[in-house]
Amino acid sequence: MSDPILAIVVPCYNEEEVLPETIGRLRALREELIEERLISPKSALLFVDDGSRDSTWKLIYKASLRYPEVKGLKLARNAGHQNALLAGLFAAKAHADCLISIDADLQDDLSAIREFVQKFRQGYDIVYGVRRRRDTDTWFKRHTAQGFYRLMKMFGVDLVYNHADYRLMSRRAVDALEQFGEVNLFLRGIVPLLGFRSASVYYDRKERLAGQTKYPLKKMIAFALDGVTSFSITPIRFISLIGFVSFVVSLMFGAYFLFLKWAGHTQTGWTSLITSIWLLGGLQLIALGLIGEYIGKIYKETKRRPRYIVDLDLWNWPLPQRLSPA
Ligand code: UDP
Ligand code: MG
Predict the structure, then answer these.
(1) Is the CB of 165 under 6 A from ligand 1?
(2) CA of 16 to the centre of ligand 2 (A)
(3) Fewer Cβ atoms within 10 Å of its own Cβ: the N or the C terminal residue of the chain?
(4) What is the value of ipTM here, to two decimals?
(5) CA of 78, closest atom in ligand 1
(6) For the chain, how long is the longest CA-to-CA vector?
(7) Closest C-alpha residue for ligand 1 atom 8
């Protein structure tokens, strides 16, 4: 087997603080792997600028002029981590035999990349990077993340535990991924569905090299909710079940109260009345909200809007002079 061509795809959103370091380290790693005859010298690094507002694109563009192995893709606006990743994978797949996705902040140990490629050479189509420990993450991040995996499992979604979006995919796996037309693509849930032969590589997660997390609590909640509702209708079933149970219980209560009345006991009735009104009102609101969540999803999917819009693709289209950043 000749050495496979590797493409490393890095989504970047306002990452000017870490990007120079990231580019440097990835280039060095690429050189090493080429020297070890693990990957072909045609291997490249693709940096996707996800509509950053700082100088991220300028840095990518300049690096691409200086180093031929550095490629750049610029999205027209911020499309979110998952979509930026997809944009990068789809732009790079024609040039590569295998593709690795990694975050720009280098939290994920680069040395796992060597093992990823070795697994690929052993015939695996998908290699998951799995965090062995995450004690460098904050207490809050660790526990919310754990809660998220539990919740997903409870709702019957098959996720690789403690695996984020650090993984290798063969070109045909990315081709298969492209066939999933959902606008709301939750990669960690979809990739196991592809069904190709897969392996895991364990690594330690480090602290962010520099800069702030781009996943504040609001985005984390949105991400978790998207993950659950695009993969499972268990929450809706659960709500129906609660509705059914409370219906049966209130029937029984009704019968009981009627019996008390018939037996001549006076009932003030106010307490039970007010509690049941509030209880049922609450349940109904939850149920409505949940159904709304799914209807919103249907609404989004039926619009078939593009997941991202490419502004500049330095790899696949030569850049017109007038568009180069000053
Ligand atoms: N990212 C992106 N678009 C966004 C948000 C994040 O491309 O809208 C990128 C970001 O630059 C980073 C990766 O996604 O490379 C993961 O983000 P981050 O490290 O902030 O998330 P965390 O590790 O805190 O979960
Ligand atoms: Mg990070």
Answers:
(1) no
(2) 14
(3) C
(4) 0.96
(5) 8
(6) 93
(7) 80
Paired tokens of 203: 């690594």
- Residue 208 CA to ligand 2 center (angstroms) comes to 6
- Determine the pLDDT at residue 161: 85
pLDDT tens digits along 43-84: 999 999 999 999 999 999 999 999 999 999 999 999 999 999
Is the pTM higher than 0.90? Answer: no
User: How many C-beta atoms lie closer than 10 Å to residue 219's C-beta?
Assistant: 13
Could you count the other beta carbons within 10 Å of the beta carbon of residue 304? Answer: 9
Task: Render pLDDT for 84-143 as a digit per residue (tens, 0 to 9).
Answer: 999 999 999 999 999 999 999 988 899 999 999 999 999 999 999 998 876 777 888 888
Contact by Cβ (8 Å): 314, 45: no
Q: How far is CA 200 from CA 140, 294, 298, in A?
A: 26, 33, 34
Percent above pLDDT 70 for the chain: 95
The CA 166 to ligand 2 mean position distance, Å, reads 11
CA 151–ligand 2 middle distance (angstroms): 22
In terms of pLDDT, which residue wins out, 16 or 162?
Answer: 16
